[in-house]
Amino acid sequence: MMKNTTICLILLVYIGSCKPDIKKTENARLQKTNANNKVQNLSVDSTKLLVQLKKFPKTDFPFKSEDANSENGFYLLNLSEFNNKKLFNIPFKKIPTQIAGGMIDSDEDDSTFNLVDLNYKAEWKLLAKRANFFVIVVNSGNGIKLVTLTFNLNVIDAINIEKGDPASNPNFSAYRHSVIYKDLTILIIHEYSVRVDEENNFDEETEKMKWFISDNGTINKAI
Asked: Which helix (H) or strand (E) holds 35?
């Protein structure tokens, strides 16, 4: 009898000592399952997006932002199947620029943009696809944006490549437009004009700056 009691006690102690290991194993299994599900979902989203991107016409380079509304313009697509993604109120990188009496990307200007409208329709132009990201031009309603995104629709970076000074009028104007090259270097051009007499003669001023898209998708000013 004593022997049987001793054996039972030993078994109980052994089972009790195993419980933490069993719990750790179960937690590890759940974490692995969650990680696999996340990777699978990203893969599904990426595949769906690639199907959409294949519909885009080829872009001719150099691409001029001023041509965006012409025959070299935007492609309309429906992104309602991605309504679980962050597609609205996305921050972008301002390039505050004062040229003569004009100001572009001022502190008062909106600092966010939308990738789609309220019906999840998007006006995009595909410029390039790289291993880990792609590059589009977006007609955002408050300037034309150059945007880099991962293939699961996370924005990496974005800037205004075409925008005017909201205060512009028939007497003066400030305006930004850009040229994007196949190697993803960007020439940003700022122009300012002001009327100087009643004969509609204008003084003009132009400034240029170079930017580029890095290998990881960030948009940077060239040094």
From this structure: helix 2-53
Written as six digits, the tokens of 50 are 């690639």
Task: Give the list of residues 6+ apart from residue 60 with CB closer than 8 angstroms, or none.
Answer: 72
In contact, 139 and 115? CB cutoff 8 Å: no
Examine residue 91 and say whether the peptide bond preceding it is cis (omega within 30 degrees of 0): no
The tokens describing 186, both together, are 């960007």
Q: Token pair of 40, please?
A: 């699978």
Query: Which pTM value belongs to this model?
Result: 0.78
Question: Is residue 149 within 8 Å of 156, Cβ to Cβ?
Answer: yes
Report the Cα–Cα distance between both ends of the chain, in Å, rounded.
87
pLDDT in tens, 151-202: 989 999 999 999 988 888 889 899 999 999 999 999 999 999 998 888 888 7
Strand partners, 164: 175
Gap between the Cα atoms of 52 and 49, Å rounded: 5
Structure tokens at 93: 């990188």
**Matching residue, tokens 């700022």:** 190
How far apart CA 159 and CA 54 sit, in angstroms, is: 24
